[in-house]
Write a structure and sequence with these properties.
Layout (H helix, E strand, L loop, with lengths): L9 H10 L6 H11 L4 E4 L6 H15 L9 E4 L3 H14 L7 E4 L6 H9 L2 E4 L1 H9 L10 E4 L2 H6 L3 H9 L6 E6 L4 H10 L4 E4 L6 H4 L1 E6 L5 H8 L8 E4 L3 H13 L4 E4 L5 H12 L5 E4 L1 H4 L9 E4 L6 H8 L10 E6 L4 H11 L5 E2 L12 E2 L2 E2 L38
Parallel strand pairs: 1-6, 1-7, 2-4, 2-5, 3-4, 5-6, 8-13, 8-14, 9-11, 9-12, 10-11, 12-13
Antiparallel strand pairs: 15-16
The chain binds adenosine monophosphate.
């Protein structure tokens, strides 16, 4: 199967080739022909399967081949998060580079005016529901000529309580539109949603997504909590860890770890919900451009974001849920590229590790790095040395210097020695 077999027009085929895609992914091979026949489609596929191109390529093809039936926007893609919206926009920009198609990305957390301006000329709008409703209420959204509606990550949109917003938007859309709905799972709720928004939809389901548990190389390091940071720094001495996504449990831990890495000479930034949209986007852009070696994130912040070229995922904190592990390691090795996932496991997490291995139906190899000093002592506090406990919530990252004033003979050391400066 090739993209040319899918009868996509030449300008799109050229753009796909320039983007570097060789062949369609399964969801693309199956959904594109149906969408090009202007049928409603339920696509069951997760991020990482190539689903964005599965709906954006046929949309571009359709818009390129028919005349606008009325003024206003021609396609609307609704997606739950700002990151997803900008990602989809960037993808469409790539795929439409040989066409004259105007895009508008609409999401909250930034000024309205540029978006209002963009909406005036847009053919395709990619939006989060909240801001879109605001702009619609102000009269800036003309959907009389809407040909295609896409609900991306519909299951997450339901979880996030966007159903009333979807209903409100749909009221203003022409009934003869084509509606595409993408979701990671097909639940009863999703079926209800399709009955409400779609007409005789065709179900396109790609079996298992490329299961990251099968494609990503994985290993665990069993270490004491206070060794996590020194070990991370030690691993980062290898240039092979080129673009590294590090997962932690808590937002504040993400900021702190990013700061400590930077202070230790490793360009790093945090991405989590407490940072402004601009800060998050800037960090993500720098990471994608290779200016930032490490991005530290929480599960929520990193879910769904698509970063090609992540060479390593490091689970600095063990994931709370087995599903989170799959999501986390799925950030590397995307769309066939290989990747590595490294997980730190403390003695308190051995049971969770066993359960995880049952869940993914495979054992994760244990690794021991002979060049790392596992004897770095735990931090000294109150004058008495003691082992750092996992329930020490105030300083969960185990990143203090091994001994006040000690050089320890290794470069693997946090910059916030002994004090609270790292916070
Ligand atoms: P998605 O599931 O849409 O988030 O896409 C995951 C990643 O796969 C993105 O980085 C896409 O650029 C990439 N991708 C999409 N389609 C293809 C393809 N046919 N060949 C190679 N990579 C692809």
């Amino acid at each position: 199967m090739t993209f040319a077999n899918l009868k996509l027009p030449q300008p799109i085929l050229d753009a796909i080739e320039e983007t570097g895609y060789r062949e369609p992914t399964p969801i693309q091979a199956r959904a594109i022909p149906v969408i090009m026949r202007r049928k409603d489609v339920i696509g069951i596929a997760q991020t990482g399967t190539g689903k964005t191109a599965a709906f954006t390529l046929p949309i571009l093809s359709t818009l390129g081949s028919i005349k606008p039936k009325a003024p206003g926007i021609r396609a609307l893609i609704i997606s739950p998060t700002r990151e997803l919206v900008t990602q989809i926009r960037d993808n469409i920009q790539d795929y439409s580079r040989h066409m004259s198609i105007q895009l508008a990305a609409v999401y909250g957390g930034v000024g309205e005016q540029p978006q209002i301006e963009a909406l005036r000329h847009a053919d395709i709008v990619i939006a989060t529901p909240g801001r879109l409703i605001d702009l619609m209420d102000q009269g800036h959204l003309d959907m009389r000529g809407l040909e295609i509606l896409v609900m991306d990550e519909a299951d997450r949109m339901l979880d996030m309580g966007f159903l009333p917003a979807m209903r409100k938007l749909a009221k203003k859309m022409p009934n003869d539109r084509q509606t595409l709905l993408f979701s990671a799972t097909l639940s009863g709720q999703i079926e209800k949603l399709t009955r409400e928004f779609q007409k005789k939809p065709t179900l396109v389901e790609v079996g298992d997504r490329t299961d990251p548990a099968k494609t990503v190389r994985q290993c665990v390091y069993q270490i004491a909590p206070h060794l996590k940071f020194p070990l991370l720094l030690h691993l980062l001495e290898s240039p092979e860890l080129f673009t590294v996504l590090v997962f932690v449990k808590m937002k504040h831990a993400a900021s702190r770890l990013a700061k400590q890495l930077s202070q230790s000479g490793v360009p790093a930034e945090a991405i989590h919900g407490d940072r402004t949209q601009n800060q998050r986007q800037r960090a993500l852009d720098k990471f994608k451009e290779g200016k930032l070696r490490v991005l530290v994130g929480t599960d929520v912040a990193a879910r769904g974001i698509d970063i090609t070229g992540v060479t390593h995922v490091v689970n600095f904190d063990f994931p709370l849920q087995n599903e989170d592990y799959i999501h986390r390691i799925g950030r590397t090795g995307r769309a066939k590229a290989e990747g590595d996932a490294i997980t730190f496991v403390t003695e308190y997490e051995h049971r969770a590790l066993n359960e995880l291995e049952k869940f993914i139906k495979r054992d994760i190899p244990r690794k021991h790095d002979r060049t790392f000093d596992y004897d770095i002592p735990a931090p000294v506090r109150d004058g008495a040395p003691r082992l750092k406990r996992n329930n020490d919530k105030a300083k969960p990252q185990g990143n203090r210097s091994p001994k006040r004033g000690s050089s320890g003979g290794k470069s693997s050391r946090g910059g916030s020695r002994g004090g609270r400066r790292g916070r």
